[in-house]
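TEACHING EXERCISE
Course module: macromolecular assemblies
Task: Read the component lines below, then compare them to the predicted structure of the full complex.
Student: A.B.
Group: 4
Components provided:
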Amino acid sequence: MKQLKLLALFVIPLGIIIAAVPADRVSQSRLSPAELLQEAGAGVQFIAPDAVADLLVQKDPSLRLIDVRTPEEFDAYSMPGAINIPLSSLLAEEYRDVLNQDAYLNVFYSNGSVYANQAWMITRQLGYENNFVLEGGLNYWFGNILSPREPSQTSPDDEFARYDFRKSAAAALGGGGVVSTDAGTPVVKAAKPAVTAKAKKKPSGGC
Amino acid sequence: MGPLAPNELISENTNFLLAFFIGIAFGWVLESSGFSSSRKLAGIFYGYDAVVLKVFFTAAITAMLGLLFMSLFGWIDLSLVYVNPTYLSSAIVGGVVMGVGFIMGGFCPGTSFCGAAIGKIDAMVFIAGLFIGVYGFAFTYGWWEKLYLANYLGEPKVSEKLGMSDGLFGLFMILAALGMFIVAEWAEKKFPREEY
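Instructor-supplied answer key:
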């Protein structure tokens, strides 16, 4: 009985302390600067514009585009179905559930990719997953997805396939510059987005 | 930051070496707690000796508190710690088979090796039975596969199911463990046995 009291004297206060700590402090994982640098260096945050276009055309419900530009810029133009979370209010309480979740594929975009990358870095540092960056930003989106340039005659086949895909995606997404010359060519779908944010693999084993 | 092996802070071989030393320490603690005696182990089912309950629950709450505090200090990423996936049907059937085997044999798998290490013949017989069971299951896996994989629940946590924080669940776990210890000590007095 004396041992039991001694044990209780140790474990009950420790239990009360751990119970009083806010839940997200106990189980949240934050990345170290070195880990973040490794991920950013490997470019795991980028999602190809063609993959986003494909998801948009397919009306994939798991895709969520997040515009990190200012509300004025967002009002002037935004991608289909995008929501606006300006970079300056990224840490606001109201957006935490949007950014820290595992149901949607969040894709940040800005005019280039600098602001979107900053948004990704901040959320990644907080340990959030499923956030990605539109590679090339809106500039690339406009210049290459919504108004694709026809490749030269000597280009390899996959260039033409990509061109055809982009042309039909642009038509579906209401972009300009659509010329319907070879409508008979089958449309090659873009590859599914490479969702490979989890670099670490879970260990296997047991007792 | 831990866990050490998944984060590649130590190599797979170092991991095995650490496991070897931890295994030796575990066996030593088991043996010195009296876990190599099948009569002592079976005592939990009859009430005259609750050392199994006390040692394992003390170990469980110690490990639980250690992990929660290490996570709080940022020393370990709990999302990378391996959790056995739950297959509810086979967990229940397996639990019953294991429990019956425990009462009949007087050992659980770990303690049987502990007993065999100090030369107990009943423990060695138990280990032989254990291997028959393991190989028997492996060679007839096709018969059991459906049951084995039924009711897959992923890796659920009780705290998540109850909608409370890990820390609060930890506190309840500690209180439950201490409550069980009190009941166990009462049972030891109520059903005493002189020699076993």
